[in-house]
Amino acid sequence: MSKHLQFPNSIQRGFAERRGWVIPLIVVLLVFVIYFNSLKNDFVNWDDPGLILRNKRIQSLNWKNIQEIFTPKKSSTFQPIRVLSYATDYSLWKFNPMGYRITNILFYILTCMTVFFTLRLLSDSLREEKQPDSHFRVGVFGALLFAAHPVHVEAVTWLAARKEVLQGFFFFLAFYLYLKGKEGEGRKKIIFLGMVLLCVILATLSKPSAVVFPAVLLIYEMALRQNRWINFVKRHWLFFALSIIISLIFTFILIKVMLDAGGIKAYHGGTFFNNLLVSFYVFLYNIKLLVFTINYSAAYTIRVPYPVLCLQTVLIIGITFLLFGLSLWFLKKTKVIFFSFLFFFITLLPYLNIIPISTLLADRYVFIASFSYCFLLGIGFDKFYTFINKRFSEGFFKLLSITLFLFLLGGYSFMTIQQNKIWENSYTLWSDAVEKYPESNTANALMGVVYMDLAMDEKAVEYLEKAVQILPIDYESRNNLGIVYGRLDKPEGALKELLTAISLKPESDTIKINLAVFYQRQKEYKKSEEILKYLISKNPREAQLYYRLGMLYKEMGHYEAAISELIKATELAPDIINPYEELGNIYISRMRDIEKGEYYYRKGIEAAPKAKLKVDDLRWVIQDLECHE
């Protein structure tokens, strides 16, 4: 602007405000462009079927079902906001994966927009000496790189990972509201801090790892106020006390749910000490994943030497402590370094396997943590943008900064688009993972499941055996091996794997059902009957068990007993067509009672009109029967 032409301050503020809202529109456009090719992707066999396709809880939005969604269940995760979002999707899209993907992308857009506003405020508070334009540029650079970063593809494209984008939106909104309202006065301040607590609860109900939020606020205040942060916390003791209490409550729920569901695994390396040493590897691998990786995958292998305590591990520990030391040293000089490193560490803390979980490394784990990396990138590009050297023209470094930024943004965007293709379906996903990380238990196990679904059992065995070889305690792969061996007429192998799977996971009813099916195929009917009756005694409201017992009795020729069990199944699950169909089959083909057979066929059609293929088949059967009367 010319020195001789100055607009009033109100007009300048108007320009700045309008410019501030242009960037979110650019974020919307960028995310839409780079994730557009993911809309045609299918569900993948990595939690999508269990969480969406076979999840009865998402098929209703009535008040009773919503209460069920928000009630913790034994042997299940507790992420009710995610489940509620699936239920909303089901009401709109049923089982069309595109609809679910649109929702994922919308929440990612909201997250990226919130990241822009948060970065701008954060830059303003931790870099006081800079001009407003500098903070704006940090927000722009950081938010666009966050939006395009390929490490986020798993969180956006994998439908089961919706918890990441939901948590991300509420987490960063809570941080933004805190930055916006903490210095306010009176009622306005109370409203803002109350909204922060609400967003923290919603973030934690989306994914429990948001329990670290109070620690993020504390390291922010330490960075901002240094020696005076304790006084600030004392003045706001009620807010911090409430936020910590919320985190402790949800931490307790998380640990209980994980224990019930078997989410807490055996120590990596066999002991707590070895497991702790492995955590140092996990931390540095996460930095590598975010900063240096160009080949992203749905499964990774972390190479940890055994014995764990060796020279390499000492070096890894030394590098980690050096990074911590540098961040503390920078507290006196550059607040943003201290804050960014500690933010990265704290938001990664739930995933460092100090409490061992099944997956050591995953793209989705750095979703929140990547905020600090993008913050530093934004500051770096801004510093380059404002750099002045007398040997170069005034606009040289501005142009160079923009050019380098666009080059990085373009590279990230290209990698994201390519990664979306890998997530197209289960086969493309796991064949890519096995190719990149052939020693990954997860990749081999799920590649085996893909071939099971394709009825290519010989190929399935190849990958499932490799998965078990890598991780002998993988009860799911042993269960699948038992199923495939049974289909390949290898009864000894099938029985061995199923019994091993039960010994590893004795509380799993699914494996016991598979064992009952195996005995039925081997004509060992009494053993199959014993297992099913035992399971019914444990789960007397489970319609599937009565249906399976009815089918066993049918095969045994005990038709009256079969009819009794199938009727119980219809009473417990009146909207499932299969028991009605089997009742009709028994009455017509075995009991020679055409009238009752037709009755149950018609009941099945009424009960499940949306099961189109079976309904059409039954209508043809009824029509054929009427023609022969």
Describe what you observe in this structure.
With 629 residues, the chain is mainly alpha-helical. The chain folds into two domains: 24-422, no CATH class; 541-629, Serine Threonine Protein Phosphatase 5, Tetratricopeptide repeat (Alpha Horseshoe). Helices cover 72% and strands 0% of the residues. It contains 29 helices and no strands. It is elongated, with a radius of gyration of 29 Å. Residues 1-7 and 9-13 have low confidence and may be disordered.
The number of strands is 0
Poorly predicted spans: 1-7, 9-13
Percent strand equals under 5%
Number of domains: 2
Helix content: over 70%
Largest sheet properties: none
- Report the span from N to C terminus: 94 Å
Query: Helix and strand succession?
Result: HHHHHHHHHHHHHHHHHHHHHHHHHHHHH
The multimeric state of the shown protein is single chain
Radius of gyration (CA) equals 29 Å
Mean pLDDT: 89
